[in-house]
Task: structure prediction
Amino acid sequence: MADSRAPDSTRRSDRSRRAIHDAALALVTEVGYAKTTVEGIAARAGVGKQTIYRWWPSKAAVLLEAFLDLTEQAARAAADGAATYEIPDTGDLAADLKLVLRATVDEMNDPAFDLPSRALAAEGIVNAELGAEFARKLLEPQLQLYVKRLRAGQEAGDVRRDLDLRIALELLAGPLAHRWLLRTLPLTHAYADAVADYALYGLAPRG
Amino acid sequence: MADSRAPDSTRRSDRSRRAIHDAALALVTEVGYAKTTVEGIAARAGVGKQTIYRWWPSKAAVLLEAFLDLTEQAARAAADGAATYEIPDTGDLAADLKLVLRATVDEMNDPAFDLPSRALAAEGIVNAELGAEFARKLLEPQLQLYVKRLRAGQEAGDVRRDLDLRIALELLAGPLAHRWLLRTLPLTHAYADAVADYALYGLAPRG
Amino acid sequence: MADSRAPDSTRRSDRSRRAIHDAALALVTEVGYAKTTVEGIAARAGVGKQTIYRWWPSKAAVLLEAFLDLTEQAARAAADGAATYEIPDTGDLAADLKLVLRATVDEMNDPAFDLPSRALAAEGIVNAELGAEFARKLLEPQLQLYVKRLRAGQEAGDVRRDLDLRIALELLAGPLAHRWLLRTLPLTHAYADAVADYALYGLAPRG
Amino acid sequence: MADSRAPDSTRRSDRSRRAIHDAALALVTEVGYAKTTVEGIAARAGVGKQTIYRWWPSKAAVLLEAFLDLTEQAARAAADGAATYEIPDTGDLAADLKLVLRATVDEMNDPAFDLPSRALAAEGIVNAELGAEFARKLLEPQLQLYVKRLRAGQEAGDVRRDLDLRIALELLAGPLAHRWLLRTLPLTHAYADAVADYALYGLAPRG
DNA sequence: AGATAACCGAGACGGTACGTCCCGTCTTTTT
DNA sequence: AAAAAGACGGGACGTACCGTCTCGGTTATCT
Result:
């Protein structure tokens, strides 16, 4: 597939794999994606270049895996033994959504998260294969949390029953992503709150 | 030593400028942004490399200008001599928004538009300076068309008076951009319609 | 840590040794010395790389041993059970020398001999240690055959008594090696004959 | 031929060409041919690798040209304005030959000459194309000097009239090359003298 | 007969160099 | 003075091998 033939993954060095992850994330954060090179990652990780090319098809794939690992660890740490990270359900839908949207805004403003995920998103925009993997492995699981909370809202009578929730969530996540990626205007808590309110109650006058 | 600043733009060759635009767009469409090189653009345009470096700071800047030129021509053609392109106002806000959102979906699904703008968006995501220029020159003028139509809606009583329309428009454009850039799900007319409806009438049940 | 010295040669696999010899000779003949790699030899021989590195210090050493083995077998076959290969002594020194020089020319024109020995000679030219081993194990024994025949010539009155025969022989072998290695002019039987005649009777006019 | 198309040799940088020559000779002398790399030559010469690959097909070709340049300069210096280097003609053929053979022995024992020419000879032994060029450009011109002196000898009655002088010279040069390249025994002035004497007067007893 | 070495095949590993592609600068010649 | 052309110093690419290093799996003695 990749090489002449597939390498034997049972003999893979875990030490090297982790060193490569760390080096990739560090370099992207420090010097940016464009100036991060496979050669640089290998040197920083104390690893031969071939060890990278043996297991990953591209710089972007290394970074994607490294970032996935990172977020998994972070999620595990946050969940503290609990099942998985979730959107809270206090009964107040608007408040719950604002909480999570504000948290998202904070993440997008934190360089440790912003820089690598920006790089991945950019690469995925141009490279369909990686983009699909990015969406499937990273994005979609997070979006499904919205679906779950909105479904609970439906049952509580806070969300219209006739909605496609997979679409509904994009009214919340889309605007944030828009500002984050396209740099039109700053991403603030106030904006997060406004998006939640506008989405829940609509642009048209009520009644 | 260096070109020691400020080439004389009055003596600039228009022929070369246009050939470079065309070559850049063609190459990005044909082989993708990453494999498009300055050398390649120069060769394709029948131009010396220095002619590119004299007038543009980077490959991305060439493409941005070329794309701007392209959209301007397209807009001029569409407007057929009229001032500029606008969102129509038939009195039916939902219908008008759906019309323009569907048109946007169509553009995003047309390779001649999709490939170069995707490349520019991706570059802008990682390169703040270019991103800002992309937003200012390309994005913002289009977004202001929504503000204008929504303001008319406010006056007609179809849009709540207490809204910040610059935010309101993002409920419409954000979800489309989200699907376009992040490749979560396909971009269809049905989706455009749903976004317009959900945004106008809100996720929460009415009165 | 390292193989910490001295593998146990009593447990060595003869099968592997021979397979490595064969693979080395085959590859040198087929693709040339420079493109013959230790990895290639190992793969062709169906052997682990370490098995080569355990028993030989270098690619050149493998080839030298393989070639030694080959020439020994060839000599054994030619001598047909007799002690060793010898220059015949028919009483006619010039004829005997021409016979063996012509045979040498034939060998040098036979790819199965030419290619590997060329490779070894070339390596020995640049690598003093291997060169010395090449000379001692392969060359010198053959040259001593000339000494023996020339000594018999001395006793028969066909060779001057005041000569250093170790030097004398080089008047015969040197010119052939010169053409063989340095590719100045083609190596033919006529050339071999001329060398024998010129060397025996001298360049200066007689009497 | 070499690249996609031939580079424009009128725009070639002479400074780089010379720096590359010098670096190649220095490295071969200092670390040996095998450890001399194109990358190393480029670095030492303060030159991009591509500048080497643009003008030469291989490391060996660089070295050959560098060495040719060197010997030409040396010859020009030795000839001190005279036409070209020649074998002297004092009327005593044996003495003249010994003089030039001893000089050859001295060259072969001088590392500044020995190391690069050994490397070239070795490469030429394995690489027919380079070997032919080596013979044609470097070797043959020198060998023709012998032909000239021997022809004068013929006219003076010191050399048999029935000889092919192109072959005769190899009785002199061949044995020296043999010891030089194949490292059988040391190359001394005494050996040079013996070769001249044996070749001139023959191995067989005189009348 | 079981333990215990060593060799053996396989191939991952940290490295070095390869030959190629482009970068952005420069110089030369033409328009 | 701009433009076409392209050589230049440089840096990274992805590949091929180097020689070292585990890893099971077979032998092949030595208790």
